[in-house]
Amino acid sequence: MKQKVTILLLLLSFCTSLNVFGQENFKETALVKNIVSALQNQDSKLVMESLPTKDDILYIIPMVKAGRPNERVPEVDNILTNFKTEASKDFKEILRKGTSFGVEWENITLQNVRYEPHNDEKIAIKKGHIILICNSNDIAFEIILRQSIRIKDKWTLMDRMKFRLL
């Protein structure tokens, strides 16, 4: 009986430590730091640093083609231009919405970061929504970095950003 309890405790502690060590500290990622700094300084150039590079896109394209052979993949330069245009529009919209609700961007604090995985079984890459939970002047809100992707151990912004009051 004592041996069964010991084995059970060992299994439980192993599973717990595996879960704890397997989780990433998103607050410390360059993506989260860049976005928070961009919001505080209202500087879209910092958001552009969080977008994928040409090398990142070239790294992903073979995975997309392997997972979805019938999908047409645009030219790399078109992809990058589209990302920059959309990220700039999204950033301006976030600033506009937040300001209309009384957010003082220079005073925002990052309270927490959540990650919601949205992996695609056809493409072997880690992706999901990274949600920044922030506040400013007693106004709680989220900035959602949709479909962020981990490329070569670095998180990049690959889709839209959204502002949502809590």
From TrEMBL:
It comes from the Bacteria. Keywords: Signal. Residues 1-22 form the signal peptide. This is DUF4252 domain-containing protein. It comes from Dokdonia donghaensis DSW-1.
